[in-house]
Amino acid sequence: xxxxxxxxxxxxxxxxxxxxxxxxxxxxxxxxxxxxxxxxxxxxxxxxxxxxxxxxxxxxxxxxxxxxxxxxxxxxxxxxxxxxxxxxxxxxxxxxxxxxxxxxxxxxxxxxxxxxxxxxxxxxxxxxxxxxxxxxxxxxxxxxxxxxxxxxxxxxxxxxxxxxxxxxxxxxxxxxxxxxxxx
Length: 183
Prior knowledge:
The structure is a single chain. By secondary structure, this protein is α+β, with helices and mostly antiparallel strands. The protein has one domain (about 25-180): Phosphatidylethanolamine-binding Protein, CATH 3.90.280.10. It has two helices and eight strands; from the N terminus they run H-E-E-E-E-E-E-E-H-E. It has a five-stranded antiparallel β-sheet. A three-stranded antiparallel β-sheet has the order 1-2-5, with no helix packed on it. A hairpin with an 8-residue loop joins strand 3 (about 70-75) and strand 4 (about 85-95). The chain is globular. The termini are far apart.
């Protein structure tokens, strides 16, 4: 009986270690976990009071699960004073063999072939950087979704909520990276 308990415990530890080692991860050379997002990434659109560079950060991911057919990416501010947060970026149809995006990809340059940017809450189909109201820092959650579909069932004009619904409905795995920004 003792041998069975030891073998069972060993199998559980081995499986858990293998599972953790293969987990989807998201990193950035431009944003450290929990760190301040640079002014270079801050939004600069008219009417919002921010004057950053609006340059999307470089992002890298690894550990996609077997069966991944494409990726989706989002950036969300849960602290926005809207009652429902604020979506800063959606990108879908990122090919399954992609492992990252270069700095500035949110402008439309350097996107993987077939990738589609969705409408954000600035009503733009591109990256829209942080631009919180003056005061406390806001959290910006970058999420990469490993999806079980080749082509995302949405077009660029659909709301960020539709992108979120479909990304979660088709996610095999997801990983997040959170940075902060304040003015």
